[in-house]
Structures are given as structure tokens and as C-alpha cells.
Amino acid sequence: MSSQQHQPDEFPLPDAPGDLPIVDSHLFDDLLPPEAAFELTAGLRGYREPFVGITEDGTPRPGLYRLNDAGASPKAAVTAAEAYLDGLAPHRRVVGNLPMDAAEWRLWTNAIPTWHPKGMRLERLAERDRDRALAIIEAGLSPGGYAQVRAAMVLNANLGELIDDYRDTLTEYAYWFTVFGTPSPDAPWGWQLMGHHVDLHCVFVAGQVVLAPVFLGAEPTIGTGRFEGVQALRDETEVALQFRRTLAPDREDEFLMGPSLRTEDLPPELAGPWNGRHLSGAGSDNLVLPAEGIIAASLPTEQRDGLIELIRVYLDRLPPAQAEHTLSLVRDHFDETRFAWRGGHDDVCAFYYRIHSPVLLVEYDNHPGVFLTNPEPARYHVHTIVRHPNGGDYGRDLLAQHYRLHHGGHEAG
What InterPro entries does the entry give (predicted)? Predict the structure, then answer.
């Protein structure tokens, strides 16, 4: 069994540089072929449509999320946010601090934006202001979660240097940061961090932290050259492999979607370079996704524990108190939780997996390297997504409960 994330000794570079129309962190979709333009503008299409949430049949299940105090105090985040906003010039603050009910919550992409985003682009900020913005992000996550986010950002710069292209876009700080609402220990507020391979939505409401949707990816997953020692998404890979290897071969018909991620072995809709196998990325807030896979509660105790360990990998990005609170909620629905896998489970092959419960959706996928120019998915290019189905994304369900309780059902800006 492998104990370390696999990456080739020599990172394989494409034969020719990429030719995507990307300049200064902007993707000119009108210069793309129609299919690519459609896929890469998913985050822009429909974000103003009424929010439903990810469901199994188009109708969200009520009563899944509880408005109670998880003990995740936002005090440190409030202090950091106030310092950050106080330091912004007025013309920047009006763009970088949007109302709590702003539509831009749902406008994001894990690729390169095809629109001019609101919020502050971190690399355009003075170092003091950028550090203050990062302090807000750090205060909303666990230490490990924050380290993971920063590693993904650094590896974005590593990618730019590896391919020696898009050097004004593939950088450590080519990310937009937006504060929503008025930072407060009592009233709801939150923030969004958006850019290539890093998209987080953090909402503080009633003593809880909601961190969803989250997209974290990396290519490479292990730093090279001057980035040696930086690593991202190791546990998302290795803990999953350890769990997969415990599953009985005679139950593969319950969880195995297919034995290979090679393009020739996939249905066309799962073989594209832009989304690969994942379904719940940008623009998929109202995705209808029937649950597939082996039922968690049907597994032997040791395997159930292994699945819980994998779920913890994703929840441990949250502050500890909130991580335990959310895990308890997931356990409440373990008899409806399913696990599915596509691909092999040796030390080198690419794979995809999905954990799907009424309150948690996790997707992991290997994508083609390098920067989508090589033909086949590779272990060193990882995408992960975390969602809260049935209205939990962006804290929407908890926010609705809060506003009914304190504002007569009306959202406070």
C-alpha cells in the first residue's frame, strides 16, 4: 500500500504550450470553441436563478439542518474582517464588501473567470491588506484547512512556472476575495474566495460555520523546484485508497461505476477535459443527482469506520467544534449515505469517487495534466468538491431559519 501521494520523478510537460485565450486572469470565452466555451462559462450561467440546492429528485428535503449553536465562535473572524475592511479605501470597500443577499455568492468558477469579478484580487492588494484578508480566511478554517488552501494557492504558482505559460494568471494570489454582510458575532455574514483550483464559501450563522460549496484542487499536488515541500490533497487521495482497498471484490457491483478513467473506457459525457467526472462544480447549485453506490450502513464496522475517516478528511477543514457538529449530522443519515468509485486503486492509476448523503456530497476526481494538455487523467492533478445538498450550500437553509426567527422571514443585508 502506498504511503505517499504518487507523482512521477520528472513532471511530464506537454509537447506544445497551451493556447487558451487567458490574459491577466481573464478567460475570453468568445475566442473558444463552442463546446469549451459552454463548459467554462457554467459559473456565469443561471446564478441569478432561484436557488433550490442539490437534490436527488428536484425537491429539497426539509428539516435536515438544525439551527443550533455548534460552538464555532466567529469572534476571531469578525475582528480580522473589521481590520481588513477598515483598511480598504472607500472605493474598494464598496466592491469588496457586498450585501449578505448579493447574487455574487453563487457566481464562481474553479477555472478562470470569463467575467470581471467583484471583490478584491489578492495580488492587487498591498501586502498589509492581503495579509488581513488571509487572516479572515484563516479564522474561518481549522489550521489544517487553512494550510491546505494556502498550499493549493502556492501550487497554482508552481504550475505556472512548470509550464512557463499564463504567468500573469497562474500565480499564488490570483484570487478574488469578497466579504458579504457586516461582520458580526451575532448576525449572519460570510466570505468567498474564488479562483483557479480554490473556491470557498464560508457563512457564519447562529454559532455555526457553513463551508460549502468548496472546490479545492491542485496540479501538481507535490511542489517541484523552489516549491519543494509544498503538498496538497494527500489525505483526500491516500485515505480514500486505503478505504477502497478494504472493500470486498464480491460487492463491486454495489459501488464500482467502472474500472478505468482512460478516455477510451468512459462514456463521452464523462471523458471531457473540463469537468471530467465531477458533476457538482460551478454552475451546479440546482443539480439533480440520484444517489449511487454502496450503502454505508451495510458495511462491516471496520469499513464504516474507514468511510468515516475519509469523511473527516473533508470536514476537518472546518474549525474543530464545527467539524464534530457536522460529522454528527452526517452520522444521523449514515443509513442513507452512499459511496461510489470509478477507476483502479493501485499506486498510479487515476480514479474518481463520490460520497453522497442527504447532508453531504463529496467528489474527488483526477484530471488530465498538465493544465489539461495531456490526454489522460493523472494522479498529480486532483479536483475535490464539497457540497451540502438539500439547501445547505451557502448556508441557505440555516439562514432561512435564522431570518424566520429574527426578521420575520426577510433577509437582512
Answer: DUF3500
Relative to beta strand 175-180, strand 97-98 is parallel
pTM above 0.85, yes or no: yes
Q: What is the number of other CB atoms lying within 10 angstroms of the CB of residue 101?
A: 14
CA distances 315 to 154, 169, 364, 391, Å, are 22, 30, 14, 18
Helix/strand/coil for 175: strand
DSSP-assigned letter for residue 50: P
Nearest to 165 by CA among 16, 268, 365, 335: 16
Q: CA-CA distance, 302 to 310, in Å (whole number)? A: 13
Indicate the SS3 state at residue 34.
helix
Q: Give the type of residue at 119.
A: G
Residue 410 confidence class, pLDDT cut points 50, 70, 90: low
> What is the rounded distance in angstroms from the CA atom of residue 379 to the CA atom of residue 233?
11
Do the Cβ atoms of 355 and 311 come closer than 8 Å?
yes
Strand partners, 208: 205
**What whole-number distance in Å separates Cα of residue 149 and Cα of residue 257?**
30
pLDDT (0 to 100) of residue 7: 54
| CB-side neighbour CA atoms (13 Å) of 80 | 19
**C-alpha grid cell, residue 192:** 468567498
| Inter-CA distances, 104 with 7, 108, 181, Å | 37, 8, 12
What's the pLDDT score for residue 10?
Answer: 54
